[in-house]
Design goal:
It is a single chain. With about 140 residues, the protein is of the alpha+beta class. It has four helices and five strands, in the order E-E-H-E-H-E-H-E-H. The chain has helices spanning about 20-30, 70-85, 95-100, 115-125; strands at about 1-10, 15-20, 45, 90, 110-115. The protein has a three-stranded antiparallel β-sheet. It has a two-stranded parallel sheet with strand order 4-5. The structure holds zinc ion. The site of zinc ion has 7 residues, from loops. Zinc ion binds near residues 8, 10, 37 and 38.
């Protein structure tokens, strides 16, 4: 069994258990992984790492043609604006700051920044809570 922290489009966070990663992917693809609070099938893993500075060689997950694309983009932008307005920008020190806050060596507060894939993997393994910051196409000039 594997536990995932999931988050729906309305930012409800919840945990769900799956037999394995493939079982999660299969159920998620069928849209039967739903939010227990609002029943939305639009859920994603909360503990993944796109917040992360990407090398140009990395690929990015993209979608197009969703009927609510404009709404989804506006919601992502609102979330991003809220985080960046309320949290401290720590740049590439994100992983070490998140760890310090987790270990109560640093003041508990909202932060955002970038981390490498290796740092993100280590944070997940250590059970440190964070979430991806949506990056919007218009950010990339
Ligand atoms: Zn929900």
């Amino acid at each position: 069994m594997i536990q995932y922290s999931l988050i729906c489009e309305s930012e409800h966070k919840f945990d769900a258990w799956f037999r394995n990663a493939d079982a999660y992917e299969a159920q998620h693809k069928k849209g039967i992984v739903t939010c227990p609070i609002c029943s939305s099938g639009n859920v994603t893993k909360a503990l993944m790492a796109p917040a992360v500075a990407r090398k140009s060689s990395d690929t990015v997950a993209l979608s197009s043609g969703h009927p609510q694309q404009a709404e989804l983009r506006a919601a992502m932008k609102a979330l991003r604006d809220k985080v960046t307005a309320e949290a401290d920008y720590v740049g590439d020190r994100f992983a070490s700051e998140a760890r310090k806050i987790h270990d109560q060596e640093s003041e508990k507060r909202g932060i955002y920044g970038e981390a490498t894939r290796e740092e993100v993997t280590a944070l997940v393994e250590d059970g440190i809570d964070f979430m991806p910051l949506p990056s919007l196409p218009e950010d990339r000039n």
